[in-house]
Task: structure prediction
Amino acid sequence: MAIDKYLEPYKKWGTKYSLWPIHLVTACCGVEMAHTWNPTYDAERLGSLPWHAPRQTNLILVEGTITFKMARVLRYIWEQMSDPKYVIAMGSCAAEGGIFWNSYHVVPVSKIIPIDAYAIGCPPTPEAVIQMIRIVQRKIETGEARANVKPKTIDLTKIFTPSPTKQPAPNPPHRITPNPHVPVCQEKKVEWPFGYELISNQLMPTLKESAKRIVVTDINRICINTEPGKLRDAALSLSKLGFDHVKSVNVIDVPHENKFYVEYWVSSYSKKELMPVLVSLTTEVPRDNPRVPSLIDIWPSADYMEREMYDFFGVWFEGNPWMGRNFLLDPDTPVKFPLRKDVPVVREFYIVDREFPGLPVAPPQPKPAAAPQKPAQAPAQPKPAQQAPQPQSGQPQEKPAEGKQETGGSTG
Result:
């Protein structure tokens, strides 16, 4: 014990200046991480050298957003690292999801592995990453993750009076409303004279019988709303005007209104003035019977994407010969139309089953086997024949147990 007591400071000193960080990059923070160890900042002089193999590292920098799918990868890497091991969450996304804080697929790193230091920023500067390395080293030495500077507190209300905002800034515990408004074909006033002339002189006269609404949604963006039964007529009119191909086919699920929005984004390769313009041809269909006419005979480029939308949402494009068959999904997949919002998102159970799932947990102790209880009025089991005592004279012989048959004949 005395030797360990004297060697402890040297062990801490050796670990402090022998950090081998591995980095898990999912977003732009990886660029700043590389900047931290380049010749300008030279973080290696602090006793840290990036390494590539988890089993030979004791520090991990989590850089970027971690989704539920990537959480498994992070967990595996962390569990392979040598003990004692440390974690730096680099950037706002790794800390609390960053700009994706209210997304259904994002999980904070602290729900997967324990974090020792946070490098805040989007992205953080190399100086901030170096500061986090120093904090980890200080934790190794003293057992406490403590910064070497203390920010000065300033009461801003004495300097200026803040003006009230119309909408408060997002706060991570809050989530989006369960029934959000889905803006489709939302008009926007922009400086785009060509677009307004295109609507007035060409689109309105040509689509007056088939379009319910034609509006400018942004520069080089036009939305045309129509009925499902008039979708083909609107598509034929756009094709005659020079919109010769489909760039994308989308389906927007609005379950709280029991409908789908089906969008065809079309443009032109043949007319130079129409090349920058994207037109969204939109219609609504009920979720319980989502059927629209296929447009592959007008725009063959829509074929591939109509198959996708049937696979993912179950929208039936009448006239497309691929309907009723899987295109991208496995034919034996148990999930039908997986991008519908009423399909539950399957998440890994081990990610949030406790505060730090990666920490070792003592296995449950086996319960002692309970002694078998004897039945209250169970009949005594007969002993083997060779050990059974002989009945005394004057006492009746014991009858055979129920369920057993005598093999010998009667004695006479």
